[in-house]
Recover the amino acids of this structure.
């Protein structure tokens, strides 16, 4: 199974920027979409940004124009550049990967999460 390791979270002031990284490792047949999700206290986990194997992206309305997702297929790594951060972005950010473990076995994995805290 694929393991995901996130990094780059931390404390930042409103208006600042952070760049999250998520490296995937393990045996797989093919990596499909990778994405970032976040969960604030008392709320459900929601999609922030997603990128498929061809590079097509999708963003939550709340982060459009501020966040940018990218991936390095050679490194099996996905990034999330977060600019113009505000307090509403405070959450635990989780990396997700959708992949084929074997030719006909589709699976997904979650990272452990990394805390992003934006202060006013």
């Amino acid at each position: 199974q694929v393991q995901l390791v996130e990094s780059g979270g931390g404390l930042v002031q409103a208006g600042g920027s952070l760049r999250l990284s998520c490296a995937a490792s393990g045996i797989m047949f093919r990596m499909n979409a990778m994405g970032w999700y976040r969960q604030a206290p008392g709320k459900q986990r929601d999609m922030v940004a997603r990128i498929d194997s061809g590079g097509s992206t999708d963003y939550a309305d709340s982060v459009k124009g501020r966040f940018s997702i990218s991936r390095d297929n050679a490194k099996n790594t996905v990034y999330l550049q977060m600019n113009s951060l505000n307090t509403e972005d405070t959450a635990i950010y989780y990396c997700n990967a959708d992949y084929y473990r074997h030719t006909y076995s589709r699976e997904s994995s979650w990272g452990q999460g990394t805390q992003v805290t934006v202060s006013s």
Summary: The chain has a mean pLDDT of 95. The two ends are 40 Å apart (CA to CA). The first strand starts at residue 3 and ends at 7.
